[in-house]
Design goal:
With 192 residues, the chain is mostly helical. The chain is 57% helix and 5% strand. β1 and β2 (148-152) form a beta hairpin. It is elongated.
C-alpha cells in the first residue's frame, strides 16, 4: 500500500515527531534573563549559545526520528524502490508542514522573551528590590570626560548587538526546517 499512514513505522514516526512538536510549544530559542549581572559581550555569548544549542537539539530530534523511520522501513536503503522513496518524501513534507506551524509558536515565545528584556524597564511590572531599585542585567562603565558622560559599551553598541541577535535568530529559524537525507532528495522550499 502506498498510503503514508499504512506503514506502521511511518505512522509511529509521524506520531513521535508530533509528540516532539507538542512538547516544544513552550520552547524559546532565547533566554529572557540571567540570575547575575553580566557584560554585554557575555550576555550575547550566552544568548547565542542558547539559541544554537536549543535549535540544534530540536532539529536533531526531528532528523533522528526521520532517519530512524527510513532505516526501520527499508533496512537496506540501496534497495528502496520508488514507492518507498515517495512515502519518505511525503513523510518529510508532512513533517515540514507540521514543523512550520510549531515554529510560529516557538518564534512567538522567543520574541516575547526577547522583548521582556526591555519591558521590565518601562515602568510597568518592574522587578525591584526592597529599596525600589530595578535589578540590573548588564554591567556598564561610566566614563567622565570633558563636559560629557559616556558609557562603555556605548548605547549604539547595545543597539547593534541586540539587533544582531535578531539576525542570528532569523538565520537559525530558517535553517530548522531544512531536512537532509542520504536516501531522498528533500526540497524544503516547497513548504512555506
Amino acid at each position: 500500500n502506498t498510503h503514508l499512514m499504512a506503514q506502521p513505522q511511518i505512522l509511529k514516526g509521524i506520531l513521535t515527531i508530533w509528540s516532539i512538536f507538542q512538547d516544544s510549544v513552550s520552547l524559546s530559542l532565547l533566554d529572557e534573563k540571567y540570575d547575575r549581572i553580566v557584560t554585554l559581550e557575555e550576555f550575547m555569548k550566552l544568548e547565542n549559545t542558547h539559541l544554537h544549542e536549543t535549535a540544534q537539539s530540536f532539529k536533531k530530534q526531528i532528523q533522528d526520528t526521520l532517519e530512524g523511520v527510513m532505516g526501520s522501513t527499508v533496512p537496506d536503503q540501496a534497495s528502496a524502490d520508488k514507492k518507498d522513496k515517495l512515502r519518505f518524501v511525503n513523510m518529510v513534507n508532512l513533517t515540514t508542514h507540521m514543523l512550520h506551524t510549531v515554529l510560529l509558536t516557538i518564534v512567538e515565545n522567543t520574541l516575547t522573551k526577547y522583548t521582556s528584556l526591555f519591558m521590565k524597564y518601562d515602568g510597568d511590572g518592574q522587578k525591584c528590590d526592597y529599596a525600589g531599585r530595578l535589578y540590573p542585567q548588564f554591567s556598564t562603565t561610566l566614563i567622565l570626560g570633558d563636559k560629557k558622560l559616556d558609557y562603555e559599551p556605548s548605547i549604539d553598541k547595545f543597539k547593534e548587538e541586540f539587533l544582531h541577535i535578531l539576525d542570528n535568530l532569523e538565520t537559525v529559524v530558517n535553517d530548522i526546517p531544512v531536512i537532509k537525507s542520504a536516501l531522498i532528495d528533500v526540497d524544503s522550499s516547497i513548504v512555506s
